[in-house]
Design goal:
Blueprint (H helix, E strand, L loop, with lengths): L16 E6 L17 H6 L12 E6 L8 H10 L3 H15 L5 E7 L1 H16 L1 E2 L1 H4 L2 H10 L23 H18 L3 E2 L15 E5 L35 E7 L21 E7 L3 H5 L6 H14 L8 H17 L15 H6 L4 H6 L62 H5 L11 E4 L4 E6 L5 E4 H8 L14 H4 L8 E5 L41 E5 L18 E5 L4 H10 L7 H7 L5 E2 L1
Parallel strand pairs: 1-2, 1-3, 3-6, 6-7, 7-8, 8-11, 11-14, 12-15
Antiparallel strand pairs: 4-5, 9-10, 12-13, 13-14
Protein name: T6SS Phospholipase effector Tle1-like catalytic domain-containing protein
InterPro entries: AB_hydrolase_fold, Tle1-like_cat
Pfam family, one: T6SS_Tle1-like_cat
Length: 613
């Protein structure tokens, strides 16, 4: 991360905003991967204003993901085993230490392992503060001590200061807390760090204004492979855990409902009772790359991008209106000429479902077998046949150019191929990652992990402040398609998990659950524009009173595998995330569909089958 060097300070301004964007595995918008479909980290980094309307500079730095180097070795070791992630954490923390001045704001963004980088940096800032120039002379020693401070097996002589030995498993948490306090006392006493800590509340505090991440994945070392009995490495727990630091003012995470890979289990935050962080974690349709960006059809990742921008805008962070508009219009243009993007063909012979699902045919064999004809991607009242020579003809290969027409020319400006919430959901294209184990994610049922052996416990995380995005309800109501357009989307994560028997039902009305993150009245935010500017609000979708009053209720105590009673979630109601931001309503206004084929109105008038009346 040698590009993360100290930036020049600017004149006599009061403060600046430091924005660090950490990309996901194999993602690199400034290297060899620049021609690949961009992640939401890349796209949002291009949309930040460099100076806000009040004169505040926004310093944006981009950190490529692990495994995005030129060599095959780097791509393999970084992608499969997360090698290079520690270097990214070091570099990001180092950059902030070198550039932070009292009063500055710190914003951290990330996707996948880049999200893990952002969270790890926030955890280190929350634990040890930011090193002073004197402390920076001992940066390597302090970082290694932080990384191993919870390791009971590390030789005590390797630490920079004297720390207590491990007393035994029963006192582990108290032992870690005492070690951290001892270390903080040393850093403060010797003026090696800055910030406020318990018993050290002099001077200005150092906090993280916001962490904004898409689908955190923290797998390091050997990936988990339950199919062959491997739990995977517990190395990620050296850097961070699931508990959000009280030094983080705001934390937002977009989560994927349809990610099947066991190695990509979601890493949700949980909040202690006394913690005041404004935490919000929202579930969206799609797999890991569909939520965080990385497929050519960005229809679903546009929704998570607009949502994230709406979380950050009220904090004073400013975006370029024209650049964001162009970002969304690129997707609409692509969908117009690619109503049926390429998907790998399944094995055509009588084959077990497991093999068909996890081993789609390679590109060359798929093309050899001929074109794939496709199903309508929505209910008949919503679906319209694309203006191509053969409306059912599918692209025979991935096409990166959003203006390229693979069959016959289509006039741009015709209705998008798929309206809001109906973008294509792709199945992961990594055979190895799918083969070693599958998983059904379930909102409200993410379990704590034993940091010693990386094994799941039977205790769900608490105070996770989860919500279900309204695009889930709309996609179910409009009968959008599932993975690779094989069949209508069922959303097994909510409507029926065969692993643990949990089932959620959609209910009309406001949820009884109180979320710390709070919630605005649907459609009330940013009516006059954004960032102090006035824009044409004719594109904002007109939401009605009560349109967003939905929630999901835990339906019953089901049975898991082997007839055993399933575990129960800590909460029984999960609210629907209301569409109350300017950019979400702006995107819906652009892509809700033609008059008479409006997906939002259709979903209100025709609730999905999982709705309780």
């Amino acid at each position: 991360m040698n590009h993360l060097r100290r930036v020049a300070t600017m004149g006599s301004r009061e403060h600046k905003r430091i924005i660090v964007c950490c990309d996901g595995t194999w993602m690199n918008s400034i290297g060899l991967k620049a021609a690949a479909p961009p992640s939401n980290v890349t796209r949002i980094a291009k949309c930040f204003k460099r100076q806000c309307s009040d004169g505040t500079p926004q310093i944006i730095v981009y950190d490529p993901g692990v495994g995005s180097g030129a060599s095959r070795v780097d791509q393999l070791m970084g992608g499969a085993f997360g090698m290079g992630l520690e270097q990214n954490i070091r570099g990001t923390y180092n950059f902030i230490c070198n550039n932070y001045l009292d009063g500055d704001e710190i914003i951290l963004l990330g996707f996948s392992r880049g999200a893990f980088t952002a969270r790890s940096v926030a955890d280190m800032i929350g634990t040890f503060g930011l090193l002073t120039p004197e402390g920076h002379e001992h940066f390597n020693e302090i970082f290694e001590d932080y990384e191993n401070i919870a390791d009971p097996k590390r030789n005590l002589n390797k630490y920079m200061i004297k720390l207590d030995a491990y007393p035994g498993e029963k006192g582990r948490l108290d032992w870690i807390h005492k070690r951290k306090k001892t270390y903080i006392d040393y850093l403060v006493k010797n003026k090696l760090t800055r910030g406020r800590f318990p018993d050290h509340d002099e001077g200005p505090d150092v906090t993280i204004k916001a962490i904004a991440v898409w689908d955190t994945v923290g797998t390091l070392g050997i990936p988990p492979a339950p199919i062959i009995g491997i739990r995977g490495s517990a190395a990620q727990w050296k850097f961070t855990d699931t508990i959000i630091s009280n030094k983080v003012e705001n934390a937002f995470q977009a989560l994927a409902l349809d990610e099947p890979r066991f190695a990509f289990r979601p890493a949700l935050w949980e909040r202690l009772k006394e913690n005041k962080t404004n935490l919000k974690q929202v579930w969206f349709p799609g797999n890991h790359g569909g939520v965080g960006g990385g497929w050519w059809d960005q229809g679903m990742s546009d929704i998570t991008l607009a949502w994230m921008v709406d979380q950050l805008t009220p904090l004073g962070i400013e975006f370029d209106h024209d650049e964001l508009t162009e970002t969304f219009c690129r997707t609409l243009a692509y969908q117009t000429v690619h109503p049926y993007p390429y998907i790998p063909r399944q094995i055509p012979l009588p084959t077990p479902h497991f093999v068909k699902q996890y081993f789609p045919l390679p590109h060359w064999l798929s093309r050899l077998l001929g074109k794939v004809h496709s199903k309508p991607w929505a209910h008949g009242d919503i679906y319209h046949a694309p203006a191509t020579a053969d409306p059912q003809l599918r692209d025979h290969d991935d096409c990166p150019a959003y203006k390229h027409t693979p069959h016959t020319p289509v006039k741009l400006g015709t209705p998008p191929g798929r309206p809001w919430a109906l973008g294509q959901l792709r199945f992961p294209d990594s055979f190895f990652q799918c083969f070693v184990g599958s998983w059904v994610r379930t909102p409200g049922m993410t379990m704590r992990v034993n940091p010693e052996n990386n094994a799941d416990t039977t205790t769900p995380l608490e105070r996770t402040e989860e919500r279900i995005h309204s695009s889930v309800r709309v996609r179910l109501a409009c009968q959008g398609l599932g993975w690779d357009d094989r069949a209508p989307w069922e959303c097994k994560a909510l409507t029926g998990n065969p692993t643990n028997g949990v089932r959620w039902r959609l209910v009309k009305g406001k949820s009884r659950e109180r979320l710390v993150g709070g919630g605005k009245i649907c459609g009330s935010d940013h009516e006059e524009g954004v960032n102090g500017e006035t824009h044409d609000n004719g594109t904002l979708y007109p939401l009605g009173e009560g349109d967003c009053d939905w929630h999901w209720v835990w339906d019953r105590k089901g049975t898991g595998r082997g007839g055993k009673a399933s575990l129960e979630p800590k909460v029984r109601h999960i609210p629907e995330e209301p569409l109350d931001g300017y950019w979400e309503r702006y995107l819906l206004g652009l892509s809700a569909g033609e008059k008479g084929r409006d997906v939002w109105r259709f979903a209100l008038e025709n609730p999905p089958a999982v709705a309780m009346h």
